[in-house]
TrEMBL record:
Pfam families: MFS_1
Source organism per UniProt: Chlamydomonas schloesseri
Ranges of residues in domain Major facilitator superfamily (MFS) profile: 184-607
Disordered: annotated segments: 1-109
Protein name: Major facilitator superfamily (MFS) profile domain-containing protein
Amino acid sequence: MAHMGLRLGSGPLTGRSSAPSLPSGLPAAPALQAPAPIHGCSSAYRQPWTWPSSRSHVAAPASALSTKGPAVPVPPSLGASALKLQPRQGAQPQQQQQPKEGHQELDAQRKREELEAQLRLSAAAATSSASAAGASAAFASASSTSSASSAAGMGPSGSLPAASSAAAGGVAGWWAGMPANDKLVFAATLALMLSNMGKVDMSVAIVPMSAEMGWSASVSGLVQALFYTGYMLACIPGGYLASSTGGRLVLPVALATWSAATFVAPLAAATVPTLSLTRFIVGAGQGVAPSAVVDIVARTVPVSGRASATTTSFGGLHLGTVVGLLAAPPIVNGLGWQALFYIYGGLGLVWYAWFESMVMPDLAAQDPTMTAALTGTASGAGPRSAAEAAADKVAAAAAKPAAAKSVVPYRAFLRAKEMQALMVTHFCNNMYYFTLLSWLPTYFVKDLDMDLSQASFMSMVPAMTGFVVSNLAGRFADWLLAGGMPLPTVRKTVQSISMLGSAAAMVGALAADDPAWVVGYMIAGLTAHPFTLAGLFCTPNDLSSRYAGALLGISNTCGALGAVTGIAACGLLLDATGGSWEAGLYYPLIGVLLAGIYAYVAHCNNNPIDFDARDNSRFEWEDRLRAGLKGLGLPISG
């Protein structure tokens, strides 16, 4: 930096007994005061120097120094006269003395070398005090939970990136430096990961359970089917609870309920009815979770970061599928099928204790306003820029406290064409995804002559890549939004990538002759599917921050119906056409994908809606039904 003529100051630094001697005739310069040590770190590590508050706040951490470049990065907007070094805390900028013109460059170079050496020693001391394992875990977690702050580059509090905090204080330092809404996203991701682990455990355990109990295939199918029955029936009530009381209250209760039901499954397996009841409870608890997570995101994350927050949270479902299926066989083989339920259910109970005893008290101290918004006592969705506030004006009006109006306007939801389009799209989306996942191993074995182990592995590839792809989709959507693209266009773009990309892949597989290309196209279509998390699953948040949970509860019920219908219809069509995969699988799924994307693009506008101001009166068919029931002598009020 000496060639720029910048003055870095003079005087002794901390840890040196005295300053180097000055050339004769030069006036003495005041000493720089070292910043206070960061709490919880090595005493040798001190906070990085920053530019004056009157300029752009650009930190110069010790890790940025290098012998191959300038000691402190200099923004181009700063002039030579404006450059000062000051501690981050406490100390005030000191008046600089101007050296004689002939010695300015020499003085600046000497002080740069002193500062570089001192900060390099401090950085080395801090690095040695942090464990390598803690730093690695913190970096991995930071990359998966930077949902809300990624759009702005740092958290709402202006904190440094989580990786830097991890280097300073391990996992504890990383957690302490994480923005409050990112902590919620991280907890929600773990919750949904445990959700899918609790769903797939029975698919593995049912084999040894059936052999031990002597169950027939119909009994095994009944036990597994009751999970989906509970899931489907709980979606709408779960959405109502999330919107009326707050997803923060609903999610931990739902997770604790399904975890307890999972934990007692080995005892309940003594009879088929009791085991079936536990699976129904597990399904019902997990049917509540998506609406609760969407409600949490709507209340705490601004529009600019909602796609990233949503895709990161729901990416936990993909993690749960992979972790659950990979961990289950060795647990069953080594410890017995009972241990699988004890471990998976116990992990959920541990999450509940961690969330209620550690996460929520920490959030209440870190961001009381956001914590209040989680239970409906205050409205808000994270920090907003002026542009976001203007764009979300209607949603802010709709997100008034729940006490203002206790009725969730379901009839107003169903009258809105945007909601009708969302329901159709969710139905088509889930019909494609779950039908293909359910029948793909059979298709690979029977039509492509693959062995079962190969077919099972290839069917798991989309789940393995799902978490990464969903996070990329969310950040891509937020990047488009930050670039000025209108919100409806952003959502329709990423939803088109999901559904049109999947349809194009099926067309390619249908036209391919080489089995390798068929497998590749199928997996490519399923890999593109997670882009729906940045489109379809963000739409309830866009339409209404207040009623996001209730809206997703309705559309998720349609999605569950689509999955059940598609799986059953594929089998019926295969039987009716003599095993034709074109008629039973390809043509129906390509058709529903095209129908779903048409409904979304043509009829779903993602601009906020004040549903409280919409018509919520009874439908005509309701009045006719009530009149008919009264005619039968039934006690119908109203």
